[in-house]
Amino acid sequence: MSTRLNKLLAEFKVLEDPRDRVMRLLDYSSLLPPLPQSERITLNRVMGCTAQVWLIAKLGSDGRMYFGADSDSKITRGFCSCLISCLNGSFPEEVLKVKIEDLSSINIGVAGGANSRANTWHNILISMQKRIRAILAKNLGKSHVEPFPSLLITTEDISTQGSFAEAQAKYLSPDASKVAELVDALKEKQIGAVAHFYMDPEVQGVLVATKHEWPHIHILDSLVMADQALKMVEAGYKTIVVLGVDFMSKNVCAVLDRASFEKVGVYRMASEKISYSLADAAISPKYLQFLEEASRYATSLHVIYINTSLQKKAQSNELP
Questions:
Q1: pLDDT tens for residues 194-241?
Q2: Is 49 a residue of the active site?
Q3: Strands 158-161, 53-59: pairing kind
């Protein structure tokens, strides 16, 4: 396994341009066999990723681990393909020894790999390891229950329980140089920021620390992000950054446009699509077919969750 992992790291290391790394990731995506629809179920979901990810793990008769994975995002499929190419056919204890730091030099995205893509590596790897522990426990006739993610705070220390809590605790004290760099950039360009509660721990840790020196950062529920952005623009800010999924930035744009602030710049966290499973489900062909069939009944009721796309909200508003 170590040879395959080193080969993968070397393969990405020679690609200095981040765009070339993303293209290589897409190449890997094309090599990953798709999971059958019967395996794309909730039980096999990898939680915590921006895109939908499904993962299966099996212990072969040879005592080695074999994985299958799929995603509705090509980039995330590439992550899965890279990990499977390194870990497939390894012994359980070998996979359990792998750490997210071992993959950091692949660096897909911003410098240091510190963004939602780095979090994707972590979530998929941790899910692989969780499934291995569950399989091994079952083979030994033991129950395996992952500890509920918790931060245990005492007067002297903070300890963690569960992998998600470990990731959170890691960024309670973020890199001071990154915080200072962000403060300087926001002050220089007079930027206001609205961010959703659900973001990867590193981003949230840096934002919270930055807010002490630049208070025009608001971490909010999605329902009030646009309202807060409008307040900042009314106070004189000409640029707003939105850290959240697609519909959140579109909501901010729509609210500012309606208030006649069309010239205010609104910037997203990333240029690629940042999907949200509920919003995507509301425009899926299967769901639209369901609505079409339901509309034939006089007593049908169509309820639209507010966290959907502007297009879906507009369509719903036009329903008789």
A1: 998 877 777 888 999 999 999 999 998 887 999 999 999 999 999 999
A2: yes
A3: unpaired
pLDDT surpassing 90 at residue 296: no
- State pLDDT tens for residues 65-110: 999 999 988 888 999 999 999 999 999 999 999 987 787 766 664 3
User: What element of type H or E holds 217?
Assistant: strand 217-220
- CB atoms under 10 Å from CB of 222, counted, come to 18
CA gap 245, 159 in Å, rounded: 31
Tell me the residue type at 27.
D
Helices 310-317 & 246-258, crossing angle to 10 degrees? 60
The answer to whether residue 54 scores a pLDDT higher than 70 is yes
Is 86:5 a contact under the CB 8 Å cutoff?
A: yes
The single-letter DSSP state of residue 159 is E
Element (H, E) at 251: helix 246-258
Label residue 162 exposed, middle or buried (CB < 10 Å: 0-12, 13-18, 19+): middle
Of the candidates 49, 180, 181, the one whose C-alpha atom is nearest the C-alpha of residue 126 is 49
Q: Kindly report whether the global pTM for this prediction surpasses the value 0.90.
A: no
Task: Name the catalytic one among 49, 80, 82, 86.
Answer: 49
DSSP letters for 85-125? HHHTTB-HHHHHH--GGGGGGG--SSGGG-SHHHHHHHHHH
Whether the CB-CB separation of 76 and 300 falls below 8 Å is answered with: no
CB atoms closer than 10 angstroms to residue 19: 8
